Amino acid sequence: MPELPEVETVCRGLARVLEGRRLTRVEARRPDLRFPLPKDFAARLRGRTIERIRRRAKYMLFELDDGQVLIGHLGMSGRMRIMPGDREGELEPPGAHDHVIFATDDGTTVYFNDARRFGYFDLAPCTELEAHKYFANLGPEPLGNDFNGPALAAALKGKKTPIKAALLDQRVVAGIGNIYACEALHRAGISPRRLARSVQGARAERLASAVRAVLTDAIAAGGSSLRDHVQPDGELGYFQHAWRVYGREGAPCGGSDAVIAASGQSGAACGEPVRRLVQAGRSTFYCGVCQR
DNA sequence: CGTACACCCTGGCCGC
DNA sequence: TGCGGCCAGGGTGTAC
Fold it and tell me: What is the DSSP string of A23-35?
């Protein structure tokens, strides 16, 4: 499920039940995830208290009471299944894709479930986090103060890749994935094929604003739920209903924010069928009229 | 160096 | 019902 808004939603759900809790049992049922779990993974976590849970890019960060940080990535299909601790009776037995079990002192238990096993966990000292291999080359947080039009323009300067590919490059800006790259470009009225280096000045300003807006809206909606993926508490995110182009090939374009603003007419639906193309092996959805 | 692409893995869906 | 082909939210290693 996981681009930035989904990971943010997951972290908030986990924080509610795990912050302040002590890990009483950690079980690595299947260590061969995207990367192997670090040595002595379970032993290094057992007895630790989770002080704070936060997010960086698409990573979950669990700050522990011994100065370590548990780093988690959900890959394509990873989920954190929360089993409330106040439930009478026994825990639901782990299934085939429940690879890691985190059990806490109040009975709350979380299963890391990931059919495709592109997700992974690692441990690192808190003080060395920014230098860690996963974080050293990450671009700015799109909802943070370091991300704006000029910063985006600078990051795109000279880049010959299509802007769509550049938005997926975590060194340019961190946390955007395939859905939100498509949605942000549509809101900004920018063609996914446009060369990244040509997104400068007002265009970069528009794109930075569109990125912030779509991510903010998606977080407010609890993220997007695909197929059976749900938030940790079982709630469904509903941002998938607000997609304007992603997954809507052939459906009528409702108009780009940028194009509508420029025309001065409110509610001017475009009506052009949404198109799909493949860039760098991944589907891009866009409107050929609104996006230039 | 920057860019392009195959690949890791499983499951769901569609067409035959 | 069965099966092959294609598709899926990500990121990395390798080949140009």
Answer: EEEEEES--BSSS
* pLDDT in the model for residue A228: 44
Would the CA dihedral through A137, A142, A145, A151 be positive or negative?
A: positive
pLDDT tens track for A236-252: 788 989 999 999 999 99
Catalytic residue among A12, A58, A187, A206: A58
The residue written with tokens 């238990």 in the block is A109
Closest CA to A229 of A88, A119, A92, A103: A119
A3 is catalytic: yes
Spatial distance between the Cα atoms of A187 and A129, rounded to a whole number of angstroms = 34
Q: What confidence tier does A255 reach under pLDDT thresholds 50, 70, 90?
A: confident
Sheet harboring A50-56: ordered strands across? Answer: A50-56, A59-64, A68-73, A120-125
Confidence of residue A260 (pLDDT cuts 50, 70, 90): confident
Dihedral pair phi/psi, residue A187, rounded to 5°: -60, -35
A265: Cβ–Cβ under 8 A, 6 or more apart, which residues? none
Angle at A23 between CA A20 and CA A28, to 5 degrees: 140
In the annotation, is A252 catalytic? Answer: no
Q: Are A240 and A226 spatial neighbours (Cβ–Cβ below 8 Å)?
A: yes
Strand B bases, protein C-beta under 7 A: 2-13
Query: A58 an active-site residue?
Result: yes
pLDDT tens string A7-61: 999 999 999 999 999 999 999 999 999 999 999 999 999 999 999 999 999 999 9
How far is A160 from A156, CA to CA, in rounded Å? 9
Q: How far is the CA of A169 from the C1' of B5 (A)?
A: 15
The answer to whether the C-beta of A212 is closer than 7 A to strand C is no
Average pLDDT, chain A: 92
A22 is catalytic: no
